[in-house]
Amino acid sequence: MRTFFFLVLLLPTLVLSEDNLVIVISMDGLRHDYPEISTSGGFEFIKKNGLEADSLIPVYQSTTYPAHVSMATGVHPNKHGILHNSFFDKERGHYSYSPESDWIDVRPVWTILEEEGIKTATYFWVGSETDWNGIQITYSKFPFSSRVSETTKINQIIEWLELPNEERPQLIMTWWHGVDSVAHKLGSSKEIVKKQLLKQDKHLLDLIKEIEDRSLWDEVTLIVVSDHGMTDISNLINVKEILDAHSIEAILSLGPSIGHIFLKNLEETELAINVLEKNKLLKVLKKTKVPDYLNHPKRTGDIVITTKSPNMLVKKVYSHPPLGMHGYDPAINEEMKGIFFAYGRGVKKKKLKQVDQVDITPTILNLLGLEVPDYMDGEALLLD
Fold it and tell me: Which partner from 99, 155, 266, 322 sits 20 to 30 angstroms from 111, CA to CA?
């Protein structure tokens, strides 16, 4: 049985005001303990003046696209459908880092707000580049480019904040580089990510100061999160080679720790299971035995395999394999846990134990005075 341990705190619904504004920053790959590296930047400021959680529990599979969509919908990947950064759909085919929001099965938070007449804005957030079910976000910066600096994003955020009330978005969500790239390349230790973490920390403090200079903290709530943590890996499991050795044809939809295998010939199901089970680092499940949290009607394979770190599922040979990775089950891997900080309107200085990634959208809705839909897996957090 799969169990998540997190602190759920209900927040009485606040009164909706056109002055209230929520900013959500997601720093890619920031493990829960990385902010300990810095003692003088934005993280330290929030620790002293705002709210900090010991950790944030990411969804599983703990990769960038599922995590960001869960933060934007309040549900787990089996419900919103974005199972990994890339996956296979039996009807639509392959999905890979797509900007098309119609792959998302559950409405994102910006569509909920826009339907209520509340303007929203994103600067690089999964699923926000195109309209969802005919609902268009008011302000969206795209297409995605990793070359865009945090300084550029901060400048745009300030421009949005300085708009007249009738034009100003009341929700701004933005992706920041975090430490993801360097940790993938060089490893997950604090010493390796320190330089990049300090850069992100300085940018965070810059934004805090810009908002302070405009005397807007009575109106603005800042939430800083990450999509996942990071761990070291040392062993690649080539699933394609295992199946090819027995002439088993299949479409492979692999993440680092979860693999969906769509067989060309279902009569080979038992053979494929027997072959895969010979690798003792794999857990192998028929689709009928897959637990609900991994099950999607169109995107779950005929066979599902999982593994733990330091292993990684692959279907090709890497000349320079990554040294750091994520995607593993946060219920058994502490290093997958991310960060959660909050400061500003509606936030008091306090510390929480753990929060869940699916609590982000309910908390946003609550801060803006809207009710949380019953279908959401998460609940609003008590920030004050």
Answer: 155
